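User: I'm new to structure prediction. If I give you an amino acid sequence, what do you actually give back? Let's try with this one:
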Amino acid sequence: MQTFVLAPGRPDQLAPGNGPRVTLSPVLVLRDGELFLVMSTPGGDLQDQRLLRVEFNMSPQEAIEAPRFYSGHLYTSFDFHEFLPGHLNVERRSPPATIDKLKAMRHKVGWWAIGAIFPPTAIQINMSDGVLTGGADRRRSRFKNGR
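Assistant: Good question. You get back a string of structure tokens that encode the predicted 3D arrangement of the chain. For your 147 residues, that looks like this:
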């Protein structure tokens, strides 16, 4: 029930016939109509931001190991439904040049000490040869196995 809101007029308002915002985001990605990638992560409102990382031409493992960030620009689904426009938290291990660029773009940059708190997993599928390439966050006891 904590993901309902009390603000009138919203589709997730606590009222008959409405439903709460759901944060479950398992993903299947197609490339040219073929299955290319499957991925998922825990993390409430931050799930989609975790899974977005595969768009940067990285392998699943590279994307998962890269420094993480999250935006507070959307209303949160939990607790008091915070809204922090322009706020962006980044892991402390992020490159200083990246932080400087974000600040120059007028983001309100904060530090996020524990990027491993939302550990994604992903499997990339090469349909031409059947090779599977996985990625998992070892900082949070996630592993990949294969042969």
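You can read the tokens as a compact description of the fold. Here is one thing that stands out. Residues 96-104 form the longest helix (9 residues).
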